[in-house]
């Protein structure tokens, strides 16, 4: 007989289908990961930092739209997923060195900036930044990048404008709709991005969940 949610456990195999042996405010108990049904008001049946939102384990994100720069829901949920994985979060809103591109809110950019081109980049909030930098310091991170590119190429993952990263920590590649989503990508002409991956979403999709890190743990993914 399997153990239901919130029951103390020692290993995942003893928990009922869809649950795993994880940590909640109750201690080490059977609990649900993201997307699993729940019914406790405080999220005691959801693992880790997940909350019980409308009957499903998930992350609670702020939908604010404020100057000088706001991290949007689409990327805040990825930031929380990354924290659960244990990877380094390197930023969403750009610093003073970012003068163009998706890390900068539309309100602070000229209309001819490349990250403002096309209907897909009409912003839902002019103060949203639309890119996240994900540290590649977790064991499965390079496998994750390959999975991400394959998912975008097959349209299983949508709304992604560009990706800059490296499969091996040395050879940095660039992908976008204009350059193509082949697994090899194009040589990146800028600097950095060997120890982190840059992912931009279209500005019209900053309220949507793209599933960039969904289903991944430090050691593997879907």
Characterization of the model:
The protein is α+β, with helices and mostly antiparallel strands and 222 residues long. The protein has two domains: 12-58, no CATH class; 73-205, no CATH class. The protein is 12% helix and 21% strand. It is built from two helices and ten strands. The protein has helices at residues 73-85, 141-153; strands at 19-24, 27-32, 51-53, 56-58, 89-91, 131-135, 160-166, 172-176, 186-187, 196-201. The strands form three sheets. The chain has a six-stranded antiparallel beta sheet with strand order 5-6-10-7-8-9, covered by helices on one side. The chain has a two-stranded antiparallel ribbon with strand order 1-2. The protein has a two-stranded antiparallel sheet with strand order 3-4. A hairpin with a 2-residue loop joins β3 and β4 (56-58). It is globular. The mean pLDDT is 95.
């Amino acid at each position: 007989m399997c153990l239901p949610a919130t029951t103390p456990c020692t290993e995942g195999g003893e928990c009922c289908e869809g649950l795993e042996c994880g940590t909640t405010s109750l201690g080490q108990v059977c609990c649900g990961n993201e997307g699993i049904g729940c019914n406790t008001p405080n999220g005691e049946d959801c693992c880790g930092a997940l909350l019980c939102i409308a009957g499903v384990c998930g992350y609670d994100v702020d939908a604010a739209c404020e100057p000088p720069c706001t991290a949007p829901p689409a990327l805040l949920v990825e930031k929380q997923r990354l924290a659960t994985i244990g990877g380094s979060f390197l930023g969403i809103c750009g610093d003073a060195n970012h003068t163009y591109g998706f890390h900068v809110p539309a309100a602070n950019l000229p209309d001819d900036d490349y990250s403002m081109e096309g209907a897909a980049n009409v912003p839902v909030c002019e103060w949203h930044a639309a890119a996240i930098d994900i540290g590649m310091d977790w064991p499965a991170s390079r496998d994750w990048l390959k999975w991400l590119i394959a998912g975008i190429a097959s349209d299983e993952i949508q709304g992604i404008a560009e990706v800059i990263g490296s499969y091996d920590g040395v050879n940095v590649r660039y992908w976008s709709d204009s350059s193509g989503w082949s697994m090899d990508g194009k040589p990146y002409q800028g600097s950095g991005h060997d120890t982190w991956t840059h992912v931009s979403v279209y500005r019209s999709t900053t309220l949507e969940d793209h599933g960039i890190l969904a289903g991944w743990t430090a050691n593997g993914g879907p």
